[in-house]
Amino acid sequence: MTSATLEIHLTDEDLTAALREDARRGLTATPKSLPPKWFYDARGSELFEQITELPEYYPTRTEWALLERVVGEIARTAQAEVLVELGAGSAAKTRLLLSALNAEGPLKTYVPQDVSTTALRAAADQVASEFPGLAVHGVVSDFTDTLDNLPRGGRRMIAFLGGTIGNLIPRERAEFLAGIHDVLEPGEQLLIGAGLVIDPAVLVPAYDDAAGVTAQFNRNVLRVLNNRLNADFDPEKFAHIALWDAEREWIEMRLEATEAMTVTVRDLDLTVEFAAGEQMRTEISAKFRRAGFEKELDTAGFATEQVWTDPDQRFALFLAERRY
Ligand SMILES: C[S@@+](CC[C@H](N)C(=O)[O-])C[C@H]1O[C@@H](n2cnc3c(N)ncnc32)[C@H](O)[C@@H]1O
């Protein structure tokens, strides 16, 4: 049986150390906040997969249909020998891209990257069994920390799908795009899937579904703190909130304390007070306008080659080349 190799740059100890830092900073700040990468333990990754199938969650199925329509064009333009995918998750949609690149000829290696070891291992093994001639080499790392551990050599395309780019605040996004520019060679490509600014009446329910799966996903960050840092959050005492910030053009997910609480994070020797109604930010999901994002790509040293959108203009795929 073909199996994938896995390169681990983030051990369990590294993750705990990073979470300690983020939790101390985020829980002692005003207002409190936590970075979204901590949703994704095994349970969080599984909940995200459930979200992608919800009737309200249009991004995954929109990007899927868009990819189905344009992967041939992407593969012809890219002629990639190596596909690197950041935040690959289950890599479900990536199959479309891999098949198209395979049909085009030169594809030799797929490098899925993610912070979640369990999700990555499962995705990498699955792809290896579906594409027997393909070398599959997973990388467990944090794309906001370093991209230096991505493999070099071969003509590469980096894919970043699912609208995950929107989870970075503008400053982080600029640093991230500059970091990708630095690991690519001139002429190599970047494919980004990004949600577009649309009617909040469609947008908000995508992050606040009727079945409450996104609420569970949001509260999962508290379970991660309980499990990894011996905290004693009662997740059910936090309400899930999703808001559209029209000025900054992003969805903000928050957790709201339903009553006054004192929470102890034992491994940090930290006591955290929550007032009734206090809100803590857990994720942003920025939405983009085509011209604005092309400008961000340009600033980072990329020339946009092509942009595809779905008929309702809800989601876009940007294919860009490192310019210099
Ligand atoms: C919104 S999901 C998208 C998954 C998949 N690409 C898709 O399109 O359905 C975000 C993915 O990025 C991963 N992720 C989030 N923050 C990360 C980070 N800082 N470094 C690496 N992976 C991260 C998560 O584990 C998750 O698999």
TrEMBL record:
It comes from the Bacteria. Keywords: Methyltransferase, S-adenosyl-L-methionine, Transferase. GO terms for biological process: ergothioneine biosynthetic process; methylation. It catalyses: L-histidine + 3 S-adenosyl-L-methionine = hercynine + 3 S-adenosyl-L-homocysteine + 3 H(+). InterPro entries: EgtD, EgtD_Actinobacteria, EgtD_Methyltrsf_superfamily, MeTrfase_dom, MeTrfase_EgtD-like, SAM-dependent_MTases_sf. S-adenosyl-L-methionine binds at residues 87, 93, 114, 142-143. L-histidine binds at residues 57, 167, 207, 283-285. Pathway: Amino-acid biosynthesis; ergothioneine biosynthesis. Residues 20-321 form the Histidine-specific methyltransferase SAM-dependent domain. One of its GO terms (molecular function) is L-histidine N(alpha)-methyltransferase activity. Its EC number is 2.1.1.44. Catalyzes the SAM-dependent triple methylation of the alpha-amino group of histidine to form hercynine, a step in the biosynthesis pathway of ergothioneine. Belongs to the methyltransferase superfamily. EgtD family. Monomer. This is Histidine N-alpha-methyltransferase. It comes from Nocardia uniformis.
